[in-house]
Every structure is written in C-alpha cells, then in structure tokens.
Amino acid sequence: MGLVLVVCTGNICRSPLGEGFVRRALQARLAGSAPEVRSAGTAGLEGSVATRGSVEAGAERGLDVSGHEARRLREPMIDEAVLIVTMTAAHRDEVTAMSPSAGPRTFTLKELTRLAEALPAPDGVPDLPARISQADSLRRSGFRGNPYDEDIADPLGMSLDMYRAIAWEIEEQADRMVEALVGRGTSEGGD
C-alpha cells in the first residue's frame, strides 16, 4: 500500500510519536495490509534519540519510542511516500519546496483529519491513494475546515505535561485521520 511519512523539525519529539500512533492506528484497522510508516525531520540530526519527554509521554499512552533514531528528510523519502503527514504548515511547505510533485499528497495532520472526515465514509476495500486524492481535491476546491488550527505545537524544552498534551493530541488526530481514510478496518471480529 506504500509508505506513510510523518515529518516534523528534528524528528525527536512530535514525528516519532506521530509515526508510532499512525502505525498503530493503521495496523489496528488494516492488519497485515497496513502501509509502512516512517518519520523524518526537516532539520533532523541523523541518529539522535527521541527526547525523554516523548519517550515518557508515549509510554504512558502505550507507545514505545525509546529505540527511535532520527532521520533527516531527503527527497527520495518524499518521492517514495504515498502520503506525507506533517506536524505544521511550515513543514508541509518545506516538503513541497523540496519536491513540488508531493503537494497533492502532503498535508498537516490536522488538515488531513478535517478533510478526510468531510469525505463520504469509505466503503469496501480501503484504497488509501484514492482517499488521499479525494482529500486533495476537496482541499483544492477551497474547503479547509479551520485553517487557523493547522499546527501541532513543538514541546521541545517544555515540561512533561506539555509532552503529555502533545502526545494525546497526536494520538487523537492520528486515530481520527486513519479511521476517516480507511474506515474501521478489517481487524475487528465478526461474521
């Protein structure tokens, strides 16, 4: 199904959490057919570890990012991705500046959540590229939801409580985005 790429600045706070929460939401709904999820930073220092706040806040939400190693965003990553989810509008703009052809598949997390939730509910077998294209068409038609609430704040240097708030926000947005894109999924039981 392709690669989903989650992007922030340093790839040590928000995007490791985003990578984990998006992966978990996709696997819960698509099981073995879930796409690969990776993360990178626009200014990431290769090999840096996730911040202590991200590790602790993630762990409190059942997510282990303790083994995370930062990657710097590079054009081949962008070109490989079927979907690029950024933490801020500035990150979205940096991605599209690096690779203009990525524009139709690059969204902030909050933007894509709003767009996907405004689409008709998915039916049948999940078609992630088609749903991303529909979200982009809706965006190009002028629908933006609330354009003043695009960004996930950077908790770097903040208290653990700030990291907890950001982890909750990323998890909630990731769950809503994935459900709106692919539906409730195939891993739920029943005949």
What does this structure look like?
The chain has 191 residues and is α/β, with parallel strands linked by helices. The chain has one domain (3-182): 3-Layer(aba) Sandwich (Rossmann fold). The protein has helices spanning 14-30, 52-60, 75-80, 89-98, 109-118, 128-140, 160-182; strands at residues 3-8, 36-41, 81-86, 106-108. Strands 2-1-3-4 form a four-stranded parallel β-sheet, with helices on both faces. Helix 1 (14-30) links the parallel strand 1 and strand 2 (36-41). Helix 1 packs parallel to helix 7, helix 2 crosses helix 7 (160-182) and helix 5 packs parallel to helix 7 (160-182). The longest helix has 23 residues, at 160-182. It is globular, with a radius of gyration of 16 Å. 46% of the residues are buried.
| Cα Rg | 16 Å
Inertia-based shape: globular
* Rounded mean pLDDT score: 93
| Count of separate DSSP helical elements | 7
Instruction: Give me the side-by-side strand order of the main sheet.
Output: 2-1-3-4
Percent strand: 5-15%
Integer count of domains: 1
Q: Main beta sheet: strand number and arrangement?
A: 4 strands, parallel
Poorly predicted regions are 187-191
Give the CATH class: Alpha Beta
Helical/strand content category: alpha/beta
CATH H level, superfamily name:
Response regulator
What is the CATH architecture descriptor? 3-Layer(aba) Sandwich
Number of strands: 4
- Order of helical and strand elements: EHEHHEHEHHH
- What name does CATH use for the topology? Rossmann fold
Q: How widely separated are the two ends?
A: 25 Å
Helix content: 40-55%
